[in-house]
Amino acid sequence: MAQGQSRIDPAGPTPYIAAMAVRDILIIPDKRLRLKSEAVKAIDKPLSALIDDMFETMYAAPGIGLAAIQIGVAKRVVTMDLAKKDEPKQPQVFINPEVIWVSDEKAIYEEGCLSIPEYYEEVARPKAVKVKFLDSKLKPQEIEAEGLLATCLQHEIDHINGVLFIDHISKLKRDMVMKKFKKAAKKTDGGKSLAEDQEPSHHIG
User: What is the CA radius of gyration of the chain?
Assistant: First the structure.
């Protein structure tokens, strides 16, 4: 996705500076990507470690968003950082995010996904959304977003509901993509290589 798009950042982004680890990102046709993730009910050490690892994995990919299910954990957790390359990092965490309002007006962005490397397609989504979520202390929050942030939020919330961005394109294109990745998975025994494109703006999550 092209850099320089407008964004609205949620209040109170939480930096995570503890020791982190890069985890493997699931690639289609891995069936786990179709799981509906479970709600988070408490903040504990495993969850904090998960969030740390999600940021490390997201930055290393590189990407601008990641859902926990993409590293094989079916929890409703999303990490995001829409900062440009020349800007300080702006890590954001969304726990149990849920879209509660969408605009009638649509916006089209070329989306990519770390779980569908090197494939991009234009997707039309609501231009603006309102999302409720819990912050890193499980305090309820609401944000209104438009532009790139709205697209990213919808993309990642789709992930925790078992939905991929290719579900929003034509069946013909979707079938072609799935066929390509199924063939590649057979050749590499389900290989977990990441996208080689080094433009994080293309990889939402």
Answer: 16
Q: Structure tokens of 75?
A: 């929890």
Q: For the chain, list the domains and their CATH numbers.
A: 31-202 (3.90.45.10)
Residues serving a catalytic function are 156
* pLDDT block averages, 10 residues each, the chain of length 205: 30 46 97 98 96 97 97 98 94 98 97 97 98 96 97 98 98 97 82 40 65
The answer to whether 138 touches 42, Cβ cutoff 8 Å, is yes
Q: How far apart are CA 131 and CA 116, in angstroms?
A: 25
Q: pTM for this one?
A: 0.84
Dihedral sign for Cα 125, 127, 128, 134, please.
Answer: positive
